[in-house]
Automatic annotation (TrEMBL):
Gene Ontology BP annotations: amino acid transport
InterPro entries referenced in this protein's UniProt entry, alphabetically: AA_ABC_transptr_permease_3TM, ArtM/GltK/GlnP/TcyL/YhdX-like, MetI-like, MetI-like_sf
One Gene Ontology cellular component annotation held by this UniProt entry: ATP-binding cassette (ABC) transporter complex
Record bears the keyword GTP-binding: no
Main localisation: membrane
GO molecular function: transmembrane transporter activity
Protein name, entry field: ABC transporter permease
Length: 313
């Protein structure tokens, strides 16, 4: 029956504010925090107070023109390789998803070869490709050889680094793109096609928005990993930041300070790239972010509305 007032027990509290809340104690958590803080203080004191690290020399070489030129080469190489790797990897992923074995089998072999071979081995092979092909020639039917150049003139150290790293990263990007496209269920594409949607519009409105949420995070990780992998190009005398530091400490014998300069610059660039990756992921998944932001207000409104519907005691 409605409208029946129930008496509150005499021992019940009249207001929630009169409750005494005792927080749960976590002694082990407090001990762990103290141990971690002690270790961090010890680490900072050891690193900053060690005279063998020669921090004044590190500060002197941080903005050296030779180091900055090497940093520019590293960033340029990373950008070029990433653009080529994404383009080649996307083509390979589409070929792998094809129903034709003439397209899918070569794409699978491409991924198997260039993803399986170490990046350093591919760098050295492409740098010495002139031992296999002394000249690169363009031959056309009924015209013969229309262009020919020595391989050593074409395959410079920078070009060898671009080719080797692009093919190596394309193998990983192909798997990333393929996995992202496979996350979109066939039911959505079949439903869109049955409604008469054009395939291009289907890809732009349905497939890509969902696939990009799965493609962008690992792609960002690959870009950061590629930035660090470019340090291998110093083996073939490409003037990246590590090669520039090696050129300096080979003359001055200040090995540790120059390596610290390289490490600090890598950490700075990686931090910037990580921040850009975070904002890019949030912009792609802005509908999910908005729904998460509105979860607490909706829950609060539902609770308040349900309390209004309850009859007063």
């Amino acid at each position: 029956m409605t409208g029946v007032n129930k008496k509150r027990p005499s021992g019940a509290l009249s207001a929630p504010n009169s409750l005494i809340v005792v927080p749960l104690r976590h002694p082990m958590r407090l001990i762990a925090m103290l141990v971690v803080m002690l270790l961090l203080i010890t680490l900072v004191y050891t690193v900053m107070g060690n005279p063998e690290l020669q921090w004044p020399i590190v500060a002197r070489y941080m903005f050296s023109p030779l180091i900055l030129d090497g940093l520019y080469t590293t960033l340029l190489l990373t950008l070029i390789v990433m653009v080529l790797a994404v383009s080649i990897g996307t083509i390979a992923a589409l070929m792998m998803l094809s129903r034709s074995s003439i397209l899918s089998v070569p794409a699978v072999a491409f991924v198997w070869l260039f993803r399986g071979a170490p990046a350093l081995v591919q760098l050295i092979l492409w740098y010495n490709v002139s031992l296999i092909f002394p000249r690169v020639s363009l031959w056309l039917p009924f015209a013969g050889t229309v262009y020919s150049v020595r391989t050593n003139d074409l395959m410079t150290p920078f070009m060898a680094a671009v080719v080797a790293l692009s093919l190596h990263e394309a193998g990983y990007m192909a798997e990333i793109v393929r996995a992202g496209l496979r996350t979109v269920s066939k039911g959505q594409t079949e439903a869109a096609l049955s409604l008469g949607m054009h395939p291009r519009l289907l890809v732009r409105r349905i497939v890509l928005p969902q696939a990009m949420r799965m493609i962008i995070p690992p792609t960002g990780n690959e870009a950061i990993n590629l930035l660090k992998t470019t340090s291998l190009v110093s083996i073939i005398a490409v003037g990246d930041i590590l090669y520039s530091a090696q050129a300096v400490y080979a003359r001055t014998f200040e090995t540790i300070p120059l390596l610290l300069v390289v490490a600090i610059w890598y950490l700075i660039v990686v931090s910037v790239m990580s921040g850009g990756q975070f904002y890019l992921e949030r912009s792609v998944a802005r509908d999910e972010t908005a729904s998460q932001r509105g979860l607490f207000p909706r829950t609060l409104r539902n609770l308040l509305s349900s309390r209004r519907k309850v009859s007063p005691a």
